[in-house]
Amino acid sequence: MTIKEKLIILSDSAKYDASCSSSGSTRSNTNGTGNAAYSGICHSFASDGRCISLLKILMTNSCIFDCKYCINRKSNDVKRAIFTPVEICEITMNFYKRNYIEGLFLSSGIIKSPNYTMEKLIETLYLLRKKYHFNGYIHVKAIPGASEVLLKKLGTLADRVSANIELPTSNGLKLLAPNKNEDKVTNIMKTIKVNRSRSFTPAGQSTQMIVGATGETDLDILGKSENLYNNYSLKRVFYSAYIPVNKDKLLPAIKNPPLVRENRLYQADWLLRFYNYKVDDLLSHDNPNFNILIDPKADWALRHLEEYPKEINTASYYDLLKIPGIGPRNAKKIVSNRKYYKLEFNDLKKMNISLKRAKYFITCNGKYFTDTNIFNKKIIEANLVLEDKVVSNKGVQLSLFNE
Amino acid sequence: MNKIYIYDGGFISFIALVVELFKNKITPDDIKLINSYDLGLFDTEIYLKVENEQENIKLLKNKISREALYCIYNVFLSDNKNKEIIIYNFLKSYFKYGKTVFGRRNIDCVNESIQISKYVRGEAHKLKGFLRFSKMKNNFYYAKFESNNNVIGILASHFSKRLMSDNWIIHDTKRGIYAIYDKEKVIYLTDEEVISLNLEKDNEDLIEDLWKTFYKTIGIKERENKRCRQNFMPKKYWKNMLEVEDEL
Ligand code: SF4
C-alpha cells in the first residue's frame, strides 16, 4: 500500500473527531523544529468550514472493538491500514517544515490490546520528540483501558491528551460502546488532572460527545459537560453532530447531522466557560432542550426580560455579559471606556461593537434605541429570529466565536 | 500652505522625526515618506534635520508604555494612507492622558490606532498559518505571499523561532521584499538585490500531493459549508495556498 493510500484511509477515519484546537501550550523551540503558539494557529480551512491546524490521523483504523457508531468497528468491511512510527514522523516533519500544519493529532483504533496500542503511540511520539527534535504541538488520544504507567509516559510527550467520553450517560455508552465504560475514560481524566504541569500535557485535556446518536437531551449533555469541567479541569468539551456512517438497528436513521443543535450546545458551552452561566440557568427538567430558533443566551434574556434593558454605563461586567451580542471582549471595551466618558450608541458602534442583537436589551445614557413600545418579548423574539436567518444565509452561523 | 514633514526610511527615521517635532513644538499638517505621494498645490515639503535618531528613539521609549509602542508600530506597518498623522495625533493624546488613552476611544486618532493595530496583527496572524513553503534545490524553504499590510517582519520573527534549524526565505511579492534566514539571523533584501539567489524548486511532488490529498479527505461532505470556509480564509490568499489554488 502506498503512503498516499494509507493517508487517505487514516485521515478519512480520523476526520469525525471535532477537536481542532492547537492552543494553550507555550512549548518553545530548543534547537529543533517547531514551537507552540499559545493562541493557536489555523493553517487552512476545510470544505466544511472547519479549521485545519493539526495533521489529524489515526495510527491505524483496525480495531478489536465494535462500537456501534464508529466507522472503524471490527464488524465493518472497510479497508484497513496502519502507519509505522517512522512514517508518521516523516509526514509530520515534512508538513510542518512547509507550514501546512501546527502539529500532529494522533488517535488510533485498538490493535491487540489497549496497552500494546498505547506503547505504539508512545513509541511514535518519542521518536518525533527525541529523534526528529519536533517541538510543535501534539494532541494525542489516550487509549481507554491502558495502564496508568503508559498514560503517564504519553503525557510527558504531548501538549494535550484527551479521551472521548462519547455519550453523556453510562446507559448510552453501554448500548453503543459496550467495551468502553465511563470509568475507563474518567480514570484517564483523573490521571491527567493530577499530573498536569509545564512538562506534562501543558495544554490540558479535552473530550468529545456525540450529539444525536442516542435519546439524551441537551440537559443530559450539557450537565455532563459542566460536571467534567468542574471535576477534571477540562479545557474543552467538543460536540460532534452524529453522522450515520453505519447502519444499525440501535442507531437513529437520520438524513442530516443535527448541526443546529450542535451549534446551540457550543454556544451554551461558551456561556458556561466564559459568561458565568450554570446549566440550571439555561435548561430544566421541564425544558430540557435548547430552542432551535434562537441562541441560548438570547433565549435566556427573553425569559428574563424584567432584568432588561441594562444600562451600558452602569451595569456590572457580569451584567454586560448577559446582553445578547456582547461578549467578554466587548464588555471589557465598555468597562475600560466608560470610566472616562458617557457611552452613547454611536460610541459603541465606533468601537466595532455590533448592536444588531444588543440594541434590544440596552439603554445608553437612559435612552433606548427606538420607541420603547417594541420592548416586548414577542417583537424582540421575532426580530432576532429574522436576523439569525439573514446571518445563516451568509454562512457564518456556524462560527463558534459569535459573541 | 500645508506643511508636510518628510522622513526618508523606516520606522526609526519616522519616529525620530516625530520626536523632533514634539521637541520643537511644531504641529505638522502631515508627515510623509519621501517620494511616496503627490504634492498638492498648497503643499510645501519640509526636511527637518534630526541630529541623533537613536537618542530620540530612546527618549520616546522612556516616555511611553510598551503597549503604546506596540500599537504605533503596528499602525506604521499598515496600508492606511494617513497612518503617519494618526500616529502623531495618537502620541499627542498619549502625552496628555498617559496610559488611560486606551480607554478614550471617543478620541478619533486613538480609536483608529487601536483598530488599525488590530487589523495589522490580524492579517499577520492569518499569514502565520497560510504561508506555504516549498523546498528549493539550494536547500532553502521558500514561501511567497501577498498582503495588505507590511507584515514580513512579524512573519520573519515568528519563523525564526519556529523553523530555527532550517534555511528559509519569505517573499513579499507586492512590496518586493525578501526576508532571508540562514539559521542564524534574518536579513532583508529587495527585488533588485536578490537576482543572484537561485530559486529553483526541488522535487516536491510527493509531499505536495500528500498535503492536497489530506486536505480533500479531512473535509466532511455531510457538513459542507464553503461560505463559512471563505469567511475564515478569504480568497485573496488562495493563490499562494496549494490546497485551494485549483479552486480559484
Ligand atoms: S474502540 Fe474506538 S476505534 Fe474501536 S470501534 Fe470503538 S470507537 Fe471505534
Written description of the protein model:
The complex is a heterodimer of chains A (403) and B (248). Chain A has 403 residues and is of the alpha/beta class. Chain A has 2 domains: 3-204, TIM Barrel (Alpha-Beta Barrel); 296-387, no CATH class. In chain A, helix 4 (148-157) packs across helix 6 (182-195). In chain A, the strands form 4 sheets. Chain A has a 4-stranded parallel β-sheet. A two-stranded antiparallel sheet of chain A has the order 1-2. Chain A contains 14 helices and 10 strands. Mean pLDDT of chain A is 92; it is low at 395-403. Chain A starts with a helix and ends in a 10-residue tail after the last helix. In chain B, strand 6 (167-172) and strand 7 form a beta hairpin. Helix content of chain B is 43%, strand content 16%. Chain B starts with a strand and ends in a 16-residue tail after the last helix. Chain B is built from 8 helices and 8 strands. Chain B has 248 residues and is an alpha/beta fold. The longest helix of chain B has 23 residues, at 108-130. Chain B has helices spanning 11-23, 53-63, 66-77, 83-97, 108-130, 152-162, 205-218, 226-232; strands at residues 2-7, 30-33, 43-46, 134-135, 140-145, 167-172, 177-182, 186-190. The chains are: A alpha/beta (403), B alpha/beta (248). Chains A and B meet through helix 1, strand 1, strand 2, helix 2 and helix 12 of A and helix 5, strand 4, helix 6, helix 7 and helix 8 of B. The complex binds iron/sulfur cluster (SF4). Iron/sulfur cluster is lined by residues 63, 65-67, 70, 72-73, 109-110, 177 of chain A.
